Amino acid sequence: MARGIHDECLARRAPDDERGKIFEWDAGVSPSSMLVIAEGPTIVGYLQYETHDADHLHVVEVVVDPDRWARGYGSMLLTELAAMRGEICSGPASVSAIVPLGHTAMLRAVCRVGFLGRSVFRDYQRAGRDSIYCQLKLHAVHVDTDDRFVVPAGEINQIRELLAQDSYVLTNAYRRVQGDLVAISKVNEDDVSALAAAESGSSVQFSGALLAGLTFLLAVAFGSTPIRFPVSALVLLVLGTALTLMSLVIYTNGSGELARIRSGEFDAYMKWGNLLSEYGGIIPFFLVLPVSFAQATGNDVASWMVGALVSLIAAGYEFSPYSSTRRYPTNAFITVLAWVTVTLPFLGAFTIHSSWASWTWSAVATSAIFARIGFNAPTHIHEVNPQHRNRGRKIR
To answer: Do 240 and 248 form a contact (C-beta atoms < 8 A)?
Structure first.
């Protein structure tokens, strides 16, 4: 099926573009390095890629059924590859693609995903075929929209002169009545070291503040004589304090990794610190708040209202674009765990008067915490930017 789509695309391309496409197919790419997009049982496009280094992927070819052009399938395949690059390479990776300068639709597709055109390859694969080397970088760059040149795609010398400057990249392509145009914009590269140091510092401060809140609740719980705080909730509170302390230690060690050791594992430090502080620190803190209120006031109705309010706040964060859950792969099991987590504060206010119910609540909460940490713990799972949905089309 994929070969049939490939041949059909060749039949609708200009003859001078045929040789390169046949060569790319016949070079042979294993199914493990191909993404296929389908509508139901029908394959409508595919993407081939190669792994050049441990931290780099190269897009060999993107082909879409000609009857389904201009529907965004090319962009969807590229978006999926960008989302999977950490899994494919077992770590952060850049992605490259070489796009013919006259292929405006594909230039627009790669730029929409975040690729930047870095340089011009003259006579790529054959005479008269100029192409743009595009790269999706490991780290984000900021495009200065006030400093932009819109140049006819045929003005190859002007494009080469602009791209020869390190601060300018190709950021878009347009098809107009008067001819194809490309946009070349100025970019400001991030100071990765400064950003990493800032992240490490803010993470230490946040984890320290969270630890202070948890220890305050512990002090209140242990300060009463006799202790009236439910023992099951105390166990959860102690667990949250221990995990938050571990996150603080990991964040602090991350600054040493960044400043002295430099083994390239800074991302792993931040990942583990984030998992322990959010799932091991914030969740127990939210869960224990309604129980603390119920114990302090003895007012059941008010406690239920507080529990419902905390659950609503937790749900608003959990399913927002800003939660850690959105940074990791998800499935039905993770979604169920998320719903269980956000209902536990409300349920906690009901369990305070029953020992078995309280211990059941604590056991479910503890299991959910460790399940969420454990699911994202494997080294091949990395934090990524949330990607656009595929609108029901299947990519495999």
So the answer is: no
User: Maximum CA pair distance of the chain?
Assistant: 88
Distance CA 118, CA 385 (A): 22
Q: Which residue has the tokens 């059924």?
A: 65
C-alpha closest to that of 296 among 359, 238, 217, 351? 217
How does residue 229 score in pLDDT terms, banded at 50, 70 and 90?
confident
pLDDT for residue 240: 92
Q: Among 109, 16, 94, which residue's Cα sits nearest to residue 61?
A: 109
Which strands, in side-by-side order, build the sheet including 94-100? 141-152, 179-189, 168-176, 116-121, 131-136, 94-100, 56-64, 42-53, 34-39, 394-395
> Which of 77, 122, 76 has its CA nearest to residue 101?
122
User: Can you read off the two tokens belonging to residue 61?
Assistant: 């070819």
Q: Which range among 32-36, 237-241, 243-247, 304-308 shows the weakest confidence by mean pLDDT? A: 32-36
Residue 313 CB-density burial (10 A; 0-12 exposed, 13-18 middle, 19+ buried): middle
279: nearest Cα among 197, 329, 210: 210
Number of Cβ atoms within 10 Å of the Cβ of 153:
20
CB 153 within 8 A of CB 101: yes
61-93: burial string, b at 16+ Cβ within 10 Å, e else: bbbbbeeeeebbbbbbbbbbbbbbbbebbebeb
Judged against a pLDDT cut of 80, whether residue 243 lies above it is answered with yes
pLDDT of residue 310: 92
Domain boundaries, the chain: 2-141, 192-376
CA distance 236 to 361: 10
Residues in the chain, total: 396
Residues 288 and 154: their CA atoms lie apart, in Å, by 65
Plot region of 40 (φ>0 → left; ψ -120 to 50 → alpha; else → beta): left
Q: Which two tokens stand for residue 94?
A: 């850049």
Distance from CA of residue 137 to its chain's centroid? 14
Task: Yes or no: say if 41 and 154 are a contact pair by the CB < 8 Å rule.
Answer: no
- Any idea which fold 2-141 has? Aminopeptidase (3.40.630)
Percent share of the chain, pLDDT over 70: 83
Phi then psi dihedrals of residue 352, to 5 deg:
-65, -25
Residue 140 is predicted with a pLDDT of 66
Question: pTM of the predicted model, to two decimals?
Answer: 0.59
pLDDT at 177: 78
